[in-house]
Amino acid sequence: MVITSCQGQKQQEKFNGVSLVASRESISSSHIKPILEINSNAVAVMPFGFMESLSSPDLKFNIERQWEGERLEGARKTTQLLHSQGLKVMIKPQIWIWKGEFTGNIKMTSEEDWKKFETNYEEFILLYAKMAAEENVELFCIGTELYEFANERKEFWEQLITKVRKIYKGKLTYAENWDKVEKVKFWNRLDFIGVDAYFPLSEGKSPNIEELRASWKPYKSQLRELSNKYDRKILFTEYGYRNTNYATRQPWDSSREEISMNYELQSNALSALYQEFWREDWFSGGFLWKWFHNHEQAGGLENNQFTPQNKPALKVVKGFYGGMVRD
User: Fold this and answer.
1) How far is it, in rounded angstroms, from Cα 17 to Cα 302?
2) Tell me, what's the pLDDT at 31?
3) Is 0.85 topped by the overall pTM?
4) Order of strands across the sheet with 94-97?
5) Are 313 and 262 in contact (CB under 8 A)?
């Protein structure tokens, strides 16, 4: 699949990805068909570990009470199924903290707890790095939105990257939140600069594509400069918008408080992002947040969360993933 600009210049293939939510039970090839139908060529598989609090050194993962898709063998089976359908895979282990606390604020209260947490986190990451190597996964993400941890313990991350590279020979990234991406200190040791791209774009209730593209300009310059600084391409490890009013004001907001429906804004926001980034040679594509395996039951016109499934915005994704990048 080739992305073509309005001048007809061919560009390097992008990751036209979706972020696949872990399922309770095994998935089948019938669950993969809708992903292929929107011209996606890559899928993020996201096993999970769990913490009781921001300062708890304990990290529980790959345990029986987790959903199958959150555990090692479920992630392996899903990866094998995706590969059998010709899709590329990014393994992206993530942490969930009780009550939905933000992982970027993880911070231990003592050196002893930091060491214990680091031991647990390394075991978590190396478990999935080994699986990624065994399954010839194209891309491995060593962490998601862990800024305090990454900033406080730079030496740990550098040695973790070294250990991962000894096991896994594919491409590496790390997914940092949009507002901290410039502060990460180890981009030079990775292959892509991973950005969870929930940049605030507009205070408006329902801005149009032109307004949103204009709002992207300063962020786009910032990301281009970051790419040049480290000689690494930018990858949107997550991107997406809800179909609500004001969805581009705080795009990270997943609360249930907003009950409005705005299908046009979800479509406009995705269109603006694709038009601004997908033609750039310093940009490597991204993984849409988010996609559920049971497509027929997912999303829909009564749902105002992130997935575009069974909403008007899905046509936008399909068109741009199919190569229709135009002004």
Assistant:
1) 24
2) 96
3) yes
4) 60-61, 48-51, 94-97
5) no
